[in-house]
Amino acid sequence: MNTHLPDGWQSFAWPVGWQPSDPKSLRLVRTGVRPLPERFCLAVRTPDMTTPGGGVVFTYRVRDRAVVLDHIGGIGQDITGHLAQVLAANSPEEWQQIAMEEVAAFCPADNTGGTVKPVNKRYKLTADHVRRVAEVYSEALAEGQPPTRAVQQRFDTAHSTAAKWVGHARKAGLLPKTDKGAAA
């Protein structure tokens, strides 16, 4: 696989949500070969990009032990004119390989700097889990955020699963009853 950048191009990969001041914020997941951040980005900059820090950004997510492209966007400038150029320079698989190689620098070989979580973790619907769901839901609601979406994101699950868990929390009396479609 040809995993290189054309002359004069630059790239940089980073884990999404990672805080350098908090090594434990690096959430790693297992892949077929090595642990990687559960979400990470690769910014690609061509020599003719004029905005400092601008570039085409590939966002990846690890799902089912595989790395998948989640989104392509830009930072710092309109990438419309550069997107075709970047996509023609390497195949999607090659860009993914470059991203994985670069982001691996953030992943300690012994995993002591981050937490490795199993992929597709199944949550048992225990009383403790339902209580945690109610806490996440209530905190998001108090902050004016979509509460079911907060549950979905916190537990990295499908929205329908998060909604079912919220329903269980309501049945358990941990959340107030509500009209369908209205958060409470």
Q: How many β-strands, per DSSP?
A: 7
Using only C-alpha atoms, the radius of gyration works out to 20 Å
Sequence of strands across the biggest β-sheet: 1-4-5-6
Uncertain residue segments: 111-120
Taking the sheet with the most strands, its summary is: 4 strands, antiparallel
Output the structural class: alpha+beta
The coarse overall form would be: elongated
Question: What is the helix/strand order?
Answer: EEEEEEHHEHHH
Mean pLDDT: 82
The first-to-last residue Cα distance is 52 Å
Helix content: 25-40%
- Counting H and I runs of at least 4 residues, what is the number of helices? 5
Tell me what portion of residues adopts beta-strand conformation.
15-25%
Task: Summarize the structure in words.
- The chain is built from five helices and seven strands, in the order ββββββααβααα.
- It is an alpha+beta fold and 184 residues long.
- A four-stranded antiparallel sheet has the order 1-4-5-6, covered by helices on one side. It has a three-stranded mixed sheet with strand order 3-2-7, with no helix packed on it.
- A hairpin with a 6-residue loop joins strand 2 and strand 3.
- Helix 3 (127-142) crosses helix 4 and helix 4 (147-155) packs across helix 5.
- The N and C termini lie far apart (52 Å).
Short description:
By secondary structure, the chain is an alpha+beta fold. Helices cover 33% and strands 22% of the residues.
Keywords:
single chain; 184 residues; alpha+beta; four-stranded antiparallel sheet; 5 helices; 7 strands; 33% helix; 22% strand; elongated
